[in-house]
Design brief:
Rossmann fold, OB fold (Dihydrolipoamide Acetyltransferase, E2P), 2 domains, six-stranded mixed sheet, globular, binds adenosine-5'-triphosphate, binds magnesium ion
């Protein structure tokens, strides 16, 4: 089932919360709605589900317009499955009863079969008669997902479905969920504020900030071709340098970086991913290379995090972070050669505070 949002706007207490939001989801596609807390992700899902009405704009599910100026299709008629941010199961219903909750329009036999099928899929057949408080957090989340999927909605909306789980369980449930959704060709939107989660799960990411869509694209597109500094920095820690355009080059504390069509004299932000920084003896491109001093080396989880000073002047001198797989050979105080891969260097006009 396809979904199309066009120019949606919504205010709460006169504050704009959704500002001209447009994106679409293809049939069978898994889209992650990503962005910092308060940017409007839950509100966007509530608009799609019909719990909120936009002030302007149009929502189309399949070939039916479900929301437009002055008219709206009721939430229960939208064929949308929803898992709320707090994934509250009904505490007075058993696991099986929770899953069966949305199946009221079927025969008893159909309800039983579908409920059992879902329990089998989430490998919780032997938990059918338990109550939510008798389950672990991960089990509750599995049941909540099963409940949302049980009526086979055309469109599944999941709001932070893996929040509150420890890292390994989260990774497991995330994989499991992606596999089952892709396997069955379910069209889904998953909300998350975790960029790694969005990268690992999404066919496409819709990145939001302050009620607006900042960029839409595959995880790779957003990572390798961010539209602005916010997007570049959202996915991983980056080195942030000030630069000034001088003809074909941009002058920074980390040496010269090739200009990418910015006008002479412009002040720019130069963002360099830590993995774009390589360290070694020889410079592969003199312009993108300079000697730096090793200031700190931390070995963390298979990767060394290295802090490098860009000059030998008195503190504070500008620093740059680099990553090195495995233990790093050089010691603090050593002088080494820094090389920057310009394919992973992003340059944006400097945003001056108004
Ligand atoms: N019913 C409401 N009345 C007034 N303001 C609201 C209401 N619901 C949400 N907001 C405001 O709208 C903005 C967007 O909220 P929303 O819940 O969509 O954010 P979110 O992106 O889901 O954040 P989080 O990641 O923290 O869940 C916030 O500033 C929030 O305070
Ligand atoms: Mg939310």
């Amino acid at each position: 089932m396809t979904l199309k949002l066009e120019n949606l706007t919504l205010r709460f207490d006169d504050q704009p919360v959704i500002r001209d939001v447009s994106f679409d989801v293809a049939d069978g596609e898994l889209v992650c709605l990503l962005g910092p807390s308060g940017c409007g992700k839950t509100t966007t899902l509530r608009l799609i589900a019909g719990f909120e009405r936009p002030e302007s704009g149009t929502i189309t599910i399949g070939d039916q317009i479900v929301s437009t100026a002055g008219q709206a299709v009721a939430p229960q008629k939208r064929d949308v499955g929803f898992l709320f941010q707090d994934y509250a199961l009904f505490p007075h219903l058993t696991v099986a009863e929770n899953i069966a909750y949305g199946l009221s329009d079927r025969t008893r036999q159909q309800v039983k079969e579908r409920t059992w099928e879902m329990l089998r899929q989430i490998r919780m057949l032997n938990h059918a008669d338990k109550y939510p408080h008798e389950l672990s957090g991960g089990e509750q989340q599995r049941v909540a997902l099963a409940r949302a999927r049980a009526p086979r909605p055309s469109l599944l909306l999941l709001d932070e479905p893996f929040s509150g789980l420890d890292t390994s369980l989260r990774a497991k449930l995330r994989r499991e969920t992606r596999d089952v959704l892709k396997d069955r060709g379910v069209t889904a939107i998953i909300v998350t504020h975790d960029p790694e989660e969005a990268m690992l799960m999404a066919d496409r990411i819709v990145l939001m900030r302050d009620g607006r869509v900042v960029q839409t694209g595959t995880p790779e597109e957003l990572y390798t071709n961010p539209v602005d500094a916010f997007t570049a920095e959202f996915f991983c820690e980056v080195n942030h340098l000030d630069g000034v355009v001088e003809g074909d080059w941009i002058k920074t504390n980390a040496g010269l970086i090739p200009n990418q069509n910015h006008p002479d004299g412009m002040e720019v932000d130069v963002l360099i991913r830590p993995e774009a920084v390589t360290l070694g003896s020889a410079a592969f491109d003199k312009a993108l290379s300079q000697e730096v001093r090793v200031c700190a080396v931390d070995y963390a989880g298979g990767t060394s995090h290295i802090r490098l000073a860009l000059s030998d002047g008195p503190e504070p001198v500008p620093h740059i972070q680099a990553r090195h797989p495995g233990p790093f050979q050089s010691a603090v105080g050593d002088h080494i050669q820094l090389n920057i891969d310009q394919a992973q260097t992003f340059i944006f006009p400097k945003q001056h505070d108004a």
